[in-house]
Amino acid sequence: MKAVNLLSSPNVKVSEPRPATREDLQLFHKDEYLDLVKRLSNLGEGYLDMGDTPAFKGCYEASALGAGASLEAVDSVMSGRAAHAMNIAGGLHHAHRERASGFCIFNDPAIAIAYLKKRHGVKRLLYLDVDAHHGDGVMYGFYSDPDVLDIDFHEDGRHLFPGTGFTNEIGEGKGSGVKINVPLPPFVDDQTYLKLFRAVVPAAVRKFRPEVILLQCGADSHANDLLAHLQITSIAYCEIAQTMHELAHEVSQGRYIVLGGGGYNISNVARIWTLVASVVAEYDCPDNVPVNWKKLFEALIGESAPDNMKTGNEATVRFGQEKMLQQADGIIEDLRARIPLLS
After folding, report:
1. Which of 272, 158, 182 is nearest to 218 (CA)?
2. Which of 86, 97, 230, 342 shows the smallest number of beta carbons within 10 Å?
3. What is the DSSP string of 78-108?
4. CA-CA distance, 41 to 34, in Å (whole number)?
5. Quick one: how far is CA 336 from the chain centroid?
6. How far apart are CA 234 and CA 250, in angstroms?
7. pLDDT for 232-261, tens place per residue?
8. Residue 200: helix, strand or coil by DSSP?
9. For residue 10, is the peptide bond before it cis, meaning its omega torsion is within 30 degrees of 0?
């Protein structure tokens, strides 16, 4: 972001985050779990779940700072100090109320949602998650809440952690019909992904009319990620970011908050989040990756740096595209039958 001069744009201000307080964390997490994280953080070892999420020295403080950055983003937008905000350290959507999961210690999107409802009096909000992995901690944390429209695009749980997020999971009680899961087959590309996105998201948002839009923008749906099998590129990410930007101005008074998430190919992460931030800030990002950044990347990572901001070095796999488009039609038909917002 620095290398392409995004952070010196007149539309952009970099704000110092604050650590989330114990009271903030209690908006979503249970006291017993917070005590466990604190204890293992001081100890510097042990696991916070069944083996995926290790504790480390200072993990409580580091995770509280990441969560606090999301709350700073919320406060910036809700106070009117900024129209939009982005916390790339956020988006840790797997943590549950009582446990860590999938590398996530504190669930900052869920904390931010609870904070928006309790501290800012928000009655309706949208949480859109495009990480390759299903945002189970957020969805199940608000599964019966009618005020949270949760739309989640992710690789089919039959192929990827956490194994959840099927079309029949639509919420329960008063929250039934406002949880929308879009499970994607492995190797899905931009064309199929965007067909589903265009069929689902704008219609649901316009009917629900959220007061605030949160986008969890995990970069691991991008081609060549090391932990997932989706094949979308910056084309899809930029369209998603732009569409949500426009919808925020149409229905949410411009209130638009973007969070990071997963991403295990470092050059993809750097490019995608820079491009998304450029869309949000209405900044004309250059096509070429700056030479100084390429040198830094290659020295630190030991891999060849991408030459182009938008195409990178990905080698997308074309795998049964016609069949995937037919599958997309089936998913759309299934969702429209289950979700009144899409009918």
Report:
1. 272
2. 97
3. HTTS-SEEEETT---TT-BTTB-BTTBSS-H
4. 10
5. 24
6. 24
7. 999 999 999 999 999 999 999 999 999 999
8. helix
9. no
How much of the chain exceeds pLDDT 90, in percent?
Answer: 95
| CA-closest candidate to residue 182, choices 141, 151, 149 | 151
Cβ neighbours, 10 Å, residue 250: 13
pLDDT of res. 316: 61
In the predicted structure, residue 313 carries a pLDDT above the cut 70: no
Distance between CA atoms of residues 272 and 269, nearest Å: 5
The yes-or-no verdict on residue 312 having pLDDT over 80 is no
Among positive and negative, which fits the CA dihedral 58, 61, 62, 64? positive
pLDDT tens digit sequence for 218-233:
999 999 999 999 999 9
pLDDT single digits (tens) 135-163:
999 999 999 999 999 999 999 999 999 99
Bridge partners of 213, per DSSP, are 126, 256
Per DSSP, helices labelled H in the chain are 22-25, 31-43, 59-78, 108-119, 136-141, 190-208, 234-251, 266-280, 291-301, 321-338
Q: What's the rounded Cα separation, in Å, for the pair 149 and 200?
A: 12
pLDDT in tens, 168-202: 999 999 999 999 999 999 999 999 999 999 999 99
State the Cα torsion 150-85-90-242 to the nearest 10°: 60
Given a contact cutoff of 8 angstroms between Cβ atoms, the answer to whether 178 and 208 are in contact is yes
The DSSP bridge partners found for residue 257 are 85, 214
Rg (CA), the chain: 19
Angle between the 108-119 and 59-78 helix axes, to the nearest 10 degrees?
40
- pLDDT mean across residues, the chain: 96
Q: Does the active-site annotation cover 84?
A: no
Which residues neighbour 31 within 8 Å (Cβ) at sequence distance 6 or greater? none
34 with 25: CB under 8 angstroms? yes
Given the structure tokens 């744009």, which residue do they identify?
9
Total number of residues shown for the chain: 343
pTM for this prediction: 0.97
Domains of the chain and any CATH numbers:
122-342 (3.40.800.20)
- Set 29, 84, 94, 134: catalytic member: 94
